[in-house]
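[step 3/7] fold_predict: job queued, chain A
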Amino acid sequence: MNIKRVQEIVATLPLSYYFGEKANYSLRVDENEETSFCNLYSHKIVISMKNIENAEKSMKTEATESVIRGLVYHELSHAILTNPYLINAYECYCNITGNGRNPSYEFNVIEDERIETVFSKFYLGVDFWKNRLLVLGPCTTPAETKEQYLFNVARYHETEGHPEALEALKPFLSCTCNRYSNSDKCYDTARKGYDAVSKIYEIFEKVQQEREKQEQSKDGKESKQDESEQEQSKEKEEEKEEKEEDKSSIFTEQEQDKLTKEAKKVVIQEVNKDYRHFYGETLDQKKADNTLTASLLKIIARNGGFGVSDELSTEGYTGDFDPELKMQDFSGNKKWWSDSDDYGNTSKTASEKILNIWLDNSSSFYSNDKAVNQILASLAEIEKKMKSFKFRLVRITNTWDEMKGNQRISKSNGGNWIPDSVKDIYARLNMTGEEKNIVLFDGQAGYPEQFRSLKCFDNRNTTFIIEESNTEYIKKNCRNSIIIEENFDYAGTLFKNIEKAFDQLF
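[step 4/7] structure written:
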């Protein structure tokens, strides 16, 4: 099948039917990519012609529409079910143990199996099991490495006589963790996957030991099959082929129906409903939180308003120390410095009041996006009214990115990671040392070693709003920071702490 025909078929497949009208995923066919993939960050699905060609070799004929549908909806399933934070959580488990495993490979193998298991009876005209046998080709046995054995178990259900290996995967495969799941569910799912792979690797060691014993029992002699033995061998091969059909699912029909029902209820309905909150929107399209706006304006008024560069004042916090001002300070405002201009008036040059918000935008934070965007819209209103106030927003996903202008919105669709470059971003956004920083993580920010990169926040100008899994590591690296544990009301806690930051700024 040529690429033009494949493109025509792909163009007829309704992503929005399963994923909502505003899924914002592009879909294209590529001749050069080695395999099909779904990019969860750029929202791109690419179908590889090479995958289709592999299927045609297995079929010894032109690929059918069902093959193409299988590839497209496999990748769409990743868009629905694969939470980027889930990937990071799995990597964290592997890195913590320090066992030299390959987390990216392992997760990809078992996640491919999970999404096809959960959606095995969901899409119209799709047979994931049949499709994988065509695209992947025949199973290579015996497995020579633990990674190959994992692949055979997960994708071919070939256990080499150890069905417990496949059984070990069931807790992970039955998880309906999706791109909007919270951090706890992601970590729970990742843990089940990690434990399953660990168990399968242990079983592979047994498989190897059994092979060695079999080889030793042969005493190095080559066995010769007579006609009877050959016939028996042929019968065994036929039995093996018949059993291939029985491997399509490790769940009973009843279990699979229950899983499919749960997937529809918990995943698809939520996707269709939730995706519409923010795609294509900018900060100026967000509705401000009137309560917060009013509260911040009151705080500003209570503290004497915003100074501007040409504003005259009777006293200030900088300049020459004035003993008379010290003696007259009955209110305790500690304004003891004066700086007179050429006309004998005292003036101050007001510096910008800057609030830096470092916001977790992993997928698990999605349910908070609407409320947080109302808060950010309020800050934008204050910014418009008061020239000397600015707020900055850093979105924390797999990267830490400063968003500017109308792009300063909460748009949760990534994972979590703490890069070494955090200190460079911090230095750039805290040039004066007077800026206030609020850092919010709704789940575990990274694995323990990564928290050392947060030492730049170790000061009283920083407030951490964190889920309890981060507390130990934040306290260890940021002893002077203000630390608030929050496991539920992140938007409400952010609201309150922005008020506190304003009190300190003004």
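[step 5/7] annotate
The two ends are 68 Å apart (CA to CA).
Residues 241-245, 274-279, 306-350 have pLDDT under 50 and may be disordered.
exit 0
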